[in-house]
Amino acid sequence: MPARLFKGVITALITPFRDGNVDFAAFEGLVERQIAAGVHGLVPVGTTGESATLTLEERQRVVEACVRVAAGRVRVIAGCGSPSTAQALEMTRHAKTVGADGALVVTPYYNRPSQSGLEAHFRAIADAVELPLVLYNVPGRTGVDLANETVAALAAHPNVVGIKDATGDLGRVSWMRARVEGDFDLISGDDPSFPGYVAQGGHGVISVTSNVAPEAMVALYEAVMACDREAAGVWQERLIALHKALFLDASPAPAKYALSRLGQCAEETRLPITPCATAVRPAIDAAMAEAGLL
């Protein structure tokens, strides 16, 4: 696999809905908006894309739309996670078939497998499909933590090319750099701490905030990569309230509300996620204004 296959600002895309169905016209507009803003990659039907409440057919159609609209201009990492290894494998096969550049596979949620079970889950997928696979560790959502040692063992597999680390533990990136041999893409999954993650040797971020403020997130990443502490500080201070505001209610409801304020899609969600609570909307508006969006 080529070095640094995935890096930079990679947007964890929301899935817009209208009248209970996926709004593909709005989704395609969001993809174009992200590419025009200079992001480096896109993740359709990840956690932020409400993958857990999409049907398998909807997930596949959204991935297909993303690949088609992106048309090779940025890398597309299809969200392929599932608590079922068989379904995750089916999604990964589909992602390869339709031309995605990689698969993002979250640790199986709800059933809380052991470390040996996690390793076997990812190996089964990596063995079966020759597509770059990015591990996704988000214990706050899945109830299980992918241990550093398990990541290091999986990194030896030629199809396992990186990790999205959404733990917020900045010590992990240094551990990985010291112990994982060869090219392995270290991607933050935590917007507020990603500048520190990249400063310690990480390669980018899979971002919720970049749905709403893609240009600013790209500028922040570029400042960090250029070791321009002053510029990075300015951009991070401009965005920090937005990073936090987008999680004041169950994600992605706040992001969808923010995008509706920008006229990019409806704020509709799918149960059990409900539309953004009225009580937190003023804080989101204020954060958007602070970021220069309103």
TrEMBL record:
Residues where pyruvate binds: 48, 206
SMART domains reported for this sequence: DHDPS
Active site: 136, 164
Entry keyword Kinase: no
PROSITE patterns: DHDPS_1, DHDPS_2
Site (Part of a proton relay during catalysis): 47, 110
Reactions mediated catalytically: L-aspartate 4-semialdehyde + pyruvate = (2S,4S)-4-hydroxy-2,3,4,5-tetrahydrodipicolinate + H2O + H(+)
InterPro entries, sorted: Aldolase_TIM (IPR013785), DapA (IPR005263), DapA-like (IPR002220), Schiff_base-form_aldolases_AS (IPR020625), Schiff_base-form_aldolases_CS (IPR020624)
Biochemical pathway: Amino-acid biosynthesis; L-lysine biosynthesis via DAP pathway; (S)-tetrahydrodipicolinate from L-aspartate: step 3/4
Transmembrane helix keyword on record: no
Subcellular locations according to the entry: Cytoplasm
Record-linked Pfam families: DHDPS
Subunit field text: Homotetramer; dimer of dimers.
Function: Catalyzes the condensation of (S)-aspartate-beta-semialdehyde [(S)-ASA] and pyruvate to 4-hydroxy-tetrahydrodipicolinate (HTPA).
Record-given protein name: 4-hydroxy-tetrahydrodipicolinate synthase
Organism (species): Brevundimonas balnearis
